[in-house]
Write a structure and sequence with these properties.
single chain, 97 residues, mainly alpha, two-stranded antiparallel ribbon, 4 helices, 2 strands, elongated, Eclosion, secreted
Length: 97
């Protein structure tokens, strides 16, 4: 028979192994105050930031990518810019002279 101390150490070792193996697979819902859909696994802030980067590539100096990214963080991805929708990117466009 195993002693209680042996069982406790085995349980701790098993828990540590599980954390190491599966720790990165679990979503970090509270990290940076992310807006995260746990059912669908959607990170709205990351989508927002990716769209800002895509619009910056498309429009170059006409698009304020930094301001767009800051709004993604400030509003937690609630207003995702769509590069093909002028209404969603209008606040980030500027006219170059």
């Amino acid at each position: 028979m195993c002693s209680n101390k042996t069982l406790l150490l085995a349980s701790i070792a098993l828990a540590a192994l599980c954390l190491l193996q599966f720790g990165e697979a679990l979503p970090s819902i509270g990290h940076y105050g992310k807006r995260f859909d746990p059912m669908g696994g959607i990170d709205f802030i990351q989508i927002c930031l990716n769209n800002c980067a895509q619009c910056k590539k498309m429009f170059g100096d006409y698009f304020q990518g930094q301001t767009c990214a800051e709004s993604c963080l400030k509003f937690k991805g609630k207003a995702i810019p769509d590069c093909e929708d002028i209404g969603s990117i209008a606040p980030f466009l500027n006219a170059l002279e």
